[in-house]
Amino acid sequence: KLCGGKKSYFAAVVCIITLASVVTISYLKSQRLSVLPKIIQEGRKCRREIANNIITPLKDNKTLIIAPYFDSRESKVTRVIGIVHHEDVKELYCWFCCQPHGKVYVSKSKIDVHSDRFGFPYGTADIVCLEPPDCDPTHVSIHWSPHGNIDQLPRFEIKNRKAETSSVDFTVCISAMFGNYNNVLQFIQSMEMYKILGVQKVVIYKNSCSQLMEKVLKFYIEEGTVEIIPWPINSHLKVSTKWHFMQDGTHIGYYGQITALNDCVYRNMLRSKFVILNDADEIILPLKHPDWKTMMQSLQEQNPGTGVFLFENHIFPETISTHTFNISSWNTVPGVNILQHVHREPDRKDVINPKKMIIDPRKVVQTSVHSVLRAYGNSVSVPVDVALIYHCRVPLQGNLPRESLIRDTTLWRYNSSLIMNVNKVLYQTVL
Ligand SMILES: *[C@@H]1O[C@H](CO)[C@@H](O)[C@H](O)[C@H]1NC(C)=O
Ligand SMILES: *[C@@H]1O[C@H](CO)[C@@H](O)[C@H](O)[C@H]1NC(C)=O
Ligand SMILES: *[C@@H]1O[C@H](CO)[C@@H](O)[C@H](O)[C@H]1NC(C)=O
């Protein structure tokens, strides 16, 4: 019998499974082949001019390119940090032009939209392309099609191409300065605290700030501490000031903070031993060590192979002040004097304090704000008796009386050098 019966039923199942596997395997094979770089032209001159803006929209109006980075940690790829519409952008291609024979290679990218999109239609994406095996391209163009003319595409330098050894120990990334930022006094104090704790570089993604702040930033740029990355994200997308989508027609959360953080990790991957991802009103205060260098040495010894260190955030409300360190010459400067805010809110039952991170950038693939999404090695929570984040801002538990807060004067240990350094900056800038 051909039809019916247990035997032929079994045969049919085997047949279907075999067919399905053949189709799957050949599909996977074709997928692998399609991501391999293909030569589409030869003997042309590779152009020199490049796109200089930090945010470059592609002609599809759905893709923004931030910057390409060479990444050889898993295979030889160009990883382009970008922002894409999570549904509308389905295909993107890397176009490489290789000297000396002017070969143009096209490879299909893997578009990896980060999982922390929080409901917004646009999200951070890694646009990852295999590089031609026989050349180390210095530039790449990104296009929605494998066909076209490379001369008409914007061209980007591939950063991190040359091996470097870390030239600094600590770099702080401030992900988005926006809303005509004018908290001048607190900013200067944070900067001086970072420097006291061991920071050599602060990278700021600047959307907008006040004239007075511009003056202060100019001082720190000339000093060599601050690097400004212009961040005109709202010229391209409707930005939200919230981190999660409120069904309000906005495109991306919190001024594209997550994209800025990821770009900052890659931008400093080779040049900084550690990268700190926090806001300008947050300071990681070590309690057992005088500075970050000794603290990180000890944390690394205790946690070999760990590349991500998480620190707990604690709120010191700007509404609760002390008279100590009420420095009269500072009262004309806009912003908060953190030395006067040494009361912290107690932990709440059922509320987990958010964390911020010190990372080894070479061990991180994708980062979010309070944790990493992909990394080599594990993450470790640093106990609050080793360090906590001093975060001076409007209260979260505003109804608590002063007596219910915890007096914590750890910051005062640094008072004399902090006051001296802040005065130096103030007299050279705003006073
Ligand atoms: C992109 O936007 C510009 C200006 O709004 C418009 O002229 C153009 O047609 C758009 N392109 C696509 C592919 O939607
Ligand atoms: C600080 O001193 C000024 C006078 O110089 C005073 O007006 C203000 O109330 C004081 N603030 C605090 C919190 O002590
Ligand atoms: C300020 O710092 C000095 C040491 O630099 C210390 O002796 C003094 O106690 C500190 N002041 C306060 C109020 O903690």
From TrEMBL:
It is a single-pass membrane protein. Its main location: membrane. The keyword Transferase applies. It holds the Pfam family Glyco_transf_92. It is found in: Membrane. One of its GO terms (molecular function) is glycosyltransferase activity. Its EC number is 2.4.1.-. The chain crosses the membrane at residues 9-28. Belongs to the glycosyltransferase 92 family. This is Glycosyltransferase family 92 protein. It comes from Crypturellus soui. The lineage of its organism: Eukaryota, Metazoa, Chordata, Craniata, Vertebrata.
